Amino acid sequence: MRYKNIIRERYKLIIKYIGMLTMAIGGFLLLPLLVLPFYPEEVIYIEAFLTPAAIFFGIGFLLWKLTSVKDDVTLSLKEGGIIVLISWIVAIIASAIPFMITGELNFTQAIFEATSGWTTTGLSVVDVTKASHVFLMWRSIMQFFGGVGLIVVMLSSVLHPYGFGLYNAEGRSDQLLPHVKKSTKAIMYIYLGYIIGGTILYVIAGMGVFDAINHAIPALSTGGFSTKADSIGHWNSLPIEMVTWLLMIFGTINFATHFALLKGKFKVFFKNGEIRLLLFIIAIFTPIVSYFSLSGLYTSLPATVRRGFFEVVSAISTTGFSLDTFSNWNQFGVLAMVLLMWIGGGTGSTAGGIKLYRIYLMIKSVWWELKGYFLPPNSVVENYIWRGEQKLYIKAEYIRETANYIFLYMATYFIGVLIYLAYGYGLTESMFEFASSVGTVGLSIGITSPDAPVGILWTQTVGMFLGRLEFLVIFFAIAKIVKDAKYLATE
To answer: PANTHER family attached here (predicted)?
Structure first.
């Protein structure tokens, strides 16, 4: 009986946090209306945002205000996962409503677009040539909060005596500072600072202010939503591409590693395995992709390398910006991009994919295993890698957990590819499109469109959601809810 009371108290705290986040989501829905003074003719869209904002803020307020919690209740990682899972579902549903109220998208399309926004994927079924400024801004706002994370936003702004489980549940395993609240504030400062700096650089490079804001946010959040149908390629401007390179690379780097860089610890920064692997991959794949896939499409070497470098960085950072279509690429180039999208960016960053840390750890694990054969039988070796500002000593369970995650990721990926094949798409196209979905990348070979089959859109939606919240958080949260419900139902 006592344990049942403890469970109930914990779920009260869970409900209270969900209420707090639901209120925040209601507030987020008001933010795109800030563009109305600049585009007054779009005031017709105000109701599409005010109505869901009022509803979700009201629901959140009731959940928060009417839930009493004892002071000694704490949250575990799995309980934090429940909050993350439910709050992200609420955010996606709330964000889809404005698209449906105006008739811009149907239910499936609206959920797809909102999921793509919050997971910072960038695949889209919106015709940006016809979309209003309010909705273009709303897409960027979703990617802003999806990139930094709902939990980071909440923990950086409110008191949170039980916040560490929440912090970890949303994929943040590295603390920048000893205190969780200070860590989340540091993340917000870094994130906002880069976005403001990126916007200024875009304007200097020749973008208009509105376009600059709506490309700085998706570039840093590795989201990839654009205000132009042909993405960054619309401008055909090397300075604009260079700003985008910088933001995409910044977006794919772990925030703890950023912190070391901003503190001037350059040696520590370049000791990080993720940084070394990222630079190595870019250096290897750029010439390979440029030569074997793009040399026949461009007449000059600079144009070939420029395109190759941009697309490689976009894929490995899981941003999804592009300079051109992929429909004329050969299979080598397409499969090279698939491999990059599998790998993805840094842990604790805004990027998706398997993550550089996991790939680096498995490479080091193979090396350590081979090296171990040449060591004396009784030798004791402490293997470590650099992560953030410190050494991380690797235990056997870390490698096992990483291998399990990669297996789960790839199993999900191939199930998704099989669904594409069942709908009649080719193998290469299916592999590319679902790698982009589950890796939260946003590059498309042409399958994603408003006319895509409903089953394909829902497959991509589920893939994006699983990829952003990293599978295990979702599975553990659902398992805990079911287990606790069964326990509470027993006499």
So the answer is: TRK SYSTEM POTASSIUM UPTAKE PROTEIN TRKG-RELATED (PTHR32024)
Using an 8 Å Cβ cutoff, are 139 and 157 in contact?
no
Phi, psi dihedrals of residue 113, rounded to the nearest 5°: -65, -40
Average pLDDT value for residue range 317-345: 93
The gap from C-alpha 30 to its chain's centroid, in whole angstroms, comes to 23
Inter-residue contact 126 to 104 (CB < 8 Å): yes
98 closest CA partner among 144, 60, 127, 132: 132
Cα–Cα distance measured from residue 313 to residue 415, given in angstroms and rounded to the nearest whole number: 27
How far is Cα 352 from Cα 348, in angstroms, rounded to an integer?
10
The number of beta carbons lying within 10 Å of the beta carbon of residue 172 is 26
Are 182 and 355 spatial neighbours (Cβ–Cβ below 8 Å)? no
Q: Are 235 and 207 in contact (CB under 8 A)?
A: yes
Per residue in 101-154, pLDDT (tens digit) is 999 999 999 999 999 999 999 999 999 999 999 999 999 999 999 888 766 655
- What does pTM read for this prediction? 0.91
> Which of 460, 419, 421 is CA-nearest to residue 443?
460
Are 132 and 45 contacting, i.e. CB atoms less than 8 angstroms apart? yes
pLDDT digits (tens, 9 = 90+) for 276-303: 999 999 999 999 999 999 988 888 999 9
SS (H, E, C) the chain: CHHHHHHHHHHHHHHHHHHHHHHHHHHHCCHHHHHCCCCHHHHHHHHHHHHHHHHHHHHHHHHHHCCCCCCCCCCCHHHHHHHHHHHHHHHHHHHHHHHHHCCCCCHHHHHHHHHHHHCCCCCCCCCCCCCCHHHHHHHHHHHHHHHHCHHHHHHCCCCCCCCHHHHHHCCCCCCCCCCHHHHHHHHHHHHHHHHHHHHHHHHHHCCCHHHHHHHHHHHHCCCCCCCCCCHHHHCCCHHHHHHHHHHHHHHCCCHHHHHHHHCCCHHHHHHCHHHHHHHHHHHHHHHHHHHHHHCCCCCCHHHHHHHHHHHHHHHHCCCCCCCCCCCCCCHHHHHHHHHHHHHCCCCCCCCCCCCHHHHHHHHHHHHHHHHHCCCCCCCCCCCEEEECCEEEECCHHHHHHHHHHHHHHHHHHHHHHHHHHHCCCCHHHHHHHHHHHHCCCCCCCCCCCCCCCHHHHHHHHHHHHHHHHCCHHHHHHHHHHHHHHHHHHCC
